[in-house]
Amino acid sequence: MKGVCYYGKEDVRVETVPDPTILNPRDAIVKITATAICGSDLHIYGGYIPTMQKGDVLGHEFMGEVVEVGSKNTRLQIGDRVVVPFTIACGNCYFCKEGLWALCDNSNPNAWMAEKLSGFSGSGLFGYSHMYGGYPGGQAEYARVPFADVGPVKVPESLSDEQVLFLSDILPTGYMAAENCHIKPGDTIAVWGCGPVGQFAIKSAYLLGAERVLAIDRFPERLAMANSHGKAETLNYAEVDVPEALRALTGGQGPDACIDAVGLESHGTTVDAWYDRAKTSMYLATDRPHALRQAINACRKGGTVSIPGVYGGWLDKFPLGAAFAKGLTLKMGQTHVHKYLTTLLSRIEHGDIDPSFVITHRITLDDVPTMYRTFRQKQDGCIKVVIKPGQGVVQSEGSIGRPPS
Amino acid sequence: MSAHSSIVELDTNSQHRGNVGDVERWGSLITGAVMIAYGLSRRSISGTWLAATAAALVYRGATGHCPVYSSLGVTTAGNAADTCVALAGDRGINVHESVRLEKPVEEAYRFWRRFENLPRFMTNLESVADLGNGRSHWVAKGPAGSTVEWDAEIINEIENKVIAWRSLPNGDVVTAGSVNFDQVRGGRTAQLSVHLQYAPPAGRLGALVATVFGREPSQTIREDLRRLKQLLEAGEVPVSAPQTSSGGRP
After folding, report:
1. Where are the strands (E) in A155-265, listed by range?
2. Cα separation, A107 vs A87, whole angstroms
3. What is the per-residue pLDDT across B77-97, written as a single tens digit (0 to 9) for each?
4. Short-list A128, A153, A145, A196, CA closest to A353
5. Are strands A257-260 and A188-192 parallel, antiparallel or unpaired?
6. Whole-prediction pTM value?
7. Which value does ipTM take for this structure?
8. Do B234 and A26 touch (CB under 8 A)?
9. Is domain B83-234 given the CATH code 3.40.50.720 in the classification?
């Protein structure tokens, strides 16, 4: 089959790779009908993610049709149309039972690597380095889905791929970011970063009862989207003094909660061997807009700073003193995707949200390497890229993928 | 080569690879210390030589290990095949690890008590056969396709609380182990606390034993218990197969 493979910094290629096979009883194989490039894939593209290996298949946002199931997977059937959470979770461990699916104990075969960095390992992830399990990703024609009897959500035919695809990651990520703000009626929420996660955080904040949402970015097309689709008041940080503006907009009190949907361009660092590399990437990141520091400083006393943006290593000049002085609550972490699937699918079905509004580009697998570059440089108004592997010239070598008989 | 480096690692890690008896150890330690003090006080070349020689005695006394005895295959530390001697107190290599499972403690106990199950998560074990009457035969993987074998007997068993065993004489390995099963978090969670002990003999056998228990015994057991947890909780051990264009099947 075709897959998008990592070959090094800013080197992504479409290659012919082996078809995935069932390896465990709870597995399923999905023929991918739609997948996407995530902002966090750009961290890999930029060479910031340790434990990536040449030839690794990328991608963690995908959906498709079940074409094969393992012997113990009784929940899925061949032909089911499913969206697959980017976090892999067993459903049986303490963390899964507590609803902390992204912290699953049993899904990362390389947990020891993450333990060296963080003490304990989170769940395995698709297409996101060997430290997170080395699972081949979803920017391909097929993917093997472990624990497919608890992860994938079946979606009704009445909804298009583009409406449900983002259940895999960015919609729940934006939603959890807003939920973590513990929004009360009348609250004002400020959102740093108007990429797709920021856009969904804005939408979700309103869905959860916020009175006002203030959105911060510097790209006009992203601010325009936040305003037109999200109904947010926008601040261009290249033009205004954001802390002053936020203070003015909130009667001198500050936003009730702040969401950092930017993250740090250094992600997933691990053991000492990679420490220097991580450090370098963090120093690069200090040239960026300091979103998290600003969010902490801007937040009102007793407020919440919610962090869906990805952080990986050791932060320099982190204003913990300000957070302490103001009695802030910090909430963060990978998204517990499984927990939100039912809620958000029904939100989509009821028309509360149509996530497809973030899509700016639709491409085939062959166009992916070019589009990584476009997306990274934020050219051509690029906000969200959806890939349709089934379209264009597609070859499959294996037997998988024939229509179910 | 790897077997050799394993010996070195174990020897430097072990505090109690005793081939020198306790009385002899104290004797070495005190005599050595006196000789160093005297030698250095002489402030002469011969005095320095005396102190340097005495340092070996201090080492022998402090560690209980004599390189000369070791090379001659001599031990004054008692019968090494007897677990009561070789593993008494905190002798031998001791590994403590524990794991929590979202499973009834009874289920975890039953799984472990069937020793045949152990190789399913202890990757260094090839097989364990129940011989009846609390006895079992263990086969572990050695280097280069060889095996290490021993018989063991259960020495303590309280249903759903504890299992303890030790190796019997005439095996390749002197080892003992126990697992405690506790209910934690108000009884919702089972906690297994494993204590493994083994005496690393010198020579070729030492290398074999090092292979059986892994070069970092603690990390090996931790990974073993992780697999046990995965098997019992999730029903399978997670795997990922690289699907790279450069490797794998065409």
Report:
1. 188-192, 212-217, 233-236, 257-260
2. 9
3. 445 567 777 777 666 788 899
4. A196
5. parallel
6. 0.81
7. 0.85
8. yes
9. no
